[in-house]
Amino acid sequence: MEEPGQLKRALIDATAGAISGGISRTVTSPLDVIKIRFQKEVIALNLPVHMALFNWNQLLPGLCFRRMCMDHQKYTGMLQATKDIFREEGLRGFWRGNVPALLMVMPYTSIQFTVLHKLKTFAAGSSKTEDHIHLSPYLSYISGALAGCAATVGSYPFDLLRTILASQGEPKVYPNMRSAFIDIIKTRGFRGLYAGLSPTLVEIIPYAGLQFGTYDTFKRWAMEWNRYRSSGSVADGSLSSFQLFICGLAAGTCAKAVCHPLDVVKKRFQIEGLQRHPRYGARVEHRAYKNMYDALYRILQKEGSAGLYKGIVPSIVKAAPAGAVTFVAYEYTSDWLESILT
To answer: Which family does it belong to (predicted)?
Structure first.
């Protein structure tokens, strides 16, 4: 097959990225809503920082932390949270904030995959996708991290609006995305649309790097396994859709497990000053945190180590299949578009 020109290649990557991101986001929206509800709850333990840092038992949400805070937490587990959201908000509650989320995810994945292909082309000296798989893990990590940064800056305001709409619960503070946007501009100014950008960029560097780096590594391992099983008869070691799904699942799990605490910090910045019912957790006051490091310190002091891992279970349960669906959808959509345009 003829390799498409630069403009066609960019169009293929951008379109395939947007479609794969939209599919993945819609399928995993309920898990994302549950994750955000856990992350934005503020349950104070008021522990000294040295105790918060070294009370390792708290790192297992659902054990010590749950026993200490169950009387004060609205959500104590995924099943209970699912039942509460369905009872109070109906089925639509699980897709709350999905429109701004799609407006965030689709441009994000579009930019990400386009920039990623450009960077890998530069690093490999070839625009052919099959040559990119042979890049070193280091170059795959760097390419993924830079692509993630570019995509984050380009789509961040929609991520902010999505988080606010998904976290407000009932009764609603903002009936739609427009009212939330206007209120943010009035109360925080234009800079308010980028609240939490710093911890987001700090998070996205290791997250996107790990996700793409490990995905390429798992793909190489799977291709080698295919060659081994076929005694070398399959020259390219091509992967099935199931194998691509497993590679994406593993990559998403690894990346999210490492970077989850930074995601919690980002969400706290994003909901600063948000008015909501007390049953959804204490209100995060406007300018409650001076910067990312201050936020980490205060969360550790007030909530312990477990505060940085709130929502870790629904987060991984959501991130793993989301990454898998995104990668599989992108691979197949990209191949389909390439076959049409070339």
So the answer is: Belongs to the mitochondrial carrier (TC 2.A.29) family.
| Closest of 41, 50, 105, 172 to residue 329, by C-alpha | 105
Question: What is the C-alpha to C-alpha distance for residues 223 and 26, in angstroms, rounded to an integer?
Answer: 30
pLDDT at residue number 288: 64
Cβ neighbours of residue 95 under 8 Å, at least 6 residues apart? Answer: 26, 29, 30, 33
What crossing angle do the helices spanning 241-270 and 6-39 adopt, rounded to 10°?
60
Cα 316–29–205 angle (5° rounding)? Answer: 50
For 136, residues 6+ apart whose C-beta sits below 8 A from its C-beta are: none
Q: What DSSP string describes 200-251?
A: HHHHHHHHHHHHHHHHHHHHHHHHHHHHHHTTT-STT----HHHHHHHHHHH
Indicate the length of the chain as a whole number.
Answer: 342
Which residues fall within 8 angstroms of residue 217, CB to CB, at 6 or more apart?
Answer: 137, 140
- Measured CA to CA, the distance from residue 207 to residue 263 in angstroms comes to 10
Do 255 and 323 meet the contact criterion of CB atoms below 8 Å apart? Answer: yes
The per-residue pLDDT for range 138-194, each reduced to its tens digit, is 899 999 999 999 999 988 888 888 778 777 766 777 888 888 899 889 988 888 888
Tell me how many helices (H) and strands (E) the chain has.
12, 0
SS3 175: coil
For 45-78, letters b (16+ CB in 10 Å) and e give bebeeeebeebeebeebeebbeeebeeebbbbbb
Place of tokens 């930074």: 262
104: exposed, middle or buried (Cβ count in 10 Å: 0-12, 13-18, 19+): buried
Count CB neighbours of 203 within 10 A: 23
Q: Which of 241, 244, 245, 239 is nearest to 223 (CA)?
A: 239
pTM: 0.71
Q: SS3 for 127?
A: coil
